[in-house]
What we know:
- There is one protein chain.
- This protein is mainly α.
- It has two domains: 3-79, Arc Repressor Mutant, subunit A (Orthogonal Bundle); 85-123, no CATH class.
- Helix content is 56%, strand content 6%.
- A hairpin with a 3-residue loop joins β1 (69-72) and β2 (76-79).
- α1 packs across α3 and α2 (42-49) packs across α3 (53-65).
- The two termini are 19 Å apart.
Amino acid sequence: MQIELIEIDFNSEEAIYMQLRNQIILGIATSQIRDGDTLPSVRQLADIIGINMHTVNKAYAVLKQEGIVSIDRRRGAVICIDTNKLFAMEDLRADLRVALAKGRCRNITRQEAHQLIDEIYNDYE
C-alpha cells in the first residue's frame, strides 16, 4: 500500500480513525489499493503518520466490521472486499438517506444530487 495516499487533517473535527478509514476506502475506489493488498502493520502506520497505535487499530477494526479488510495473523490487515452486494446496498442506502436529507435541507435538487453522484463515480473510473 502506498502510505503517501494517507492524508490526515489534524485540525479536522472528523475523528482521525475515520479519516484513516475513509482514505483507505478512497484508495480502494480509485484502484490505488487493490483486493489482496496488505496494509501496513498498526505500529508501522502509526509511526509513519504520527498517530497513536490505538487509532490505527480502531480504523482497521471498523474496516473489518464493514467487510473491507480481513485480519490474518501472518499477513496482518488484508484488503478483502466483501462480495455480499445486498448488504453493501443496504449500507449504502442508509448512508445516502442521511446525506440526501442533509442536501435537501440545503435546497439541493434531485437533479443536482444525481449530477454530483455521476461526477463522483467518474472520479473512480
